[in-house]
Design brief:
With 115 residues, the chain is an all-beta fold. Helices cover 0% and strands 50% of the residues. It has no helices and 11 strands. The mean pLDDT is 97.
């Protein structure tokens, strides 16, 4: 059974940091790109960051470049999204997905940036 389980979300003040984790199981993790998407209320889901199969290549949305860092640990079947200098506009549900064209999705985790 394929599973992607996000953790590490919550409420943080503007300027703060959070680290999201994605635990994967049920598929060959190191055969898939890993993506982080987010969806804010009333908005479309957008790609935030992507990491290649071996972790050597990353890609970011312009809105998070220089603030977010995506990484993965293939030995642990884990992916991470380190989010720094958070802004209220980063408030959204964050989703982990597997595959350059996502084949598998997690259920998502809420991140709220507010004072």
């Amino acid at each position: 059974q394929v599973q992607l389980v996000e953790s590490g979300g919550g409420l943080v003040q503007p300027g703060g940091s959070l680290r999201l984790s994605c635990a994967a199981s049920g598929f060959i993790f190191d055969h898939y790109y890993i993506n982080w998407f987010r969806q804010a209320l009333g908005k479309e889901r957008e790609l935030v960051a992507r990491v290649s199969i071996n972790g050597a290549e990353t890609d970011y949305a312009d809105s998070v470049k220089g603030r977010f860092v995506v990484s993965r640990d293939n030995a642990k079947n884990m992916a991470y999204l380190q989010m720094n200098s958070l802004k209220p506009e980063d408030t959204a549900m964050y989703f982990c997905s597997a595959g350059y064209k996502p084949a598998y999705w997690g259920q998502g985790i809420q991140v709220t940036v507010s004072s």
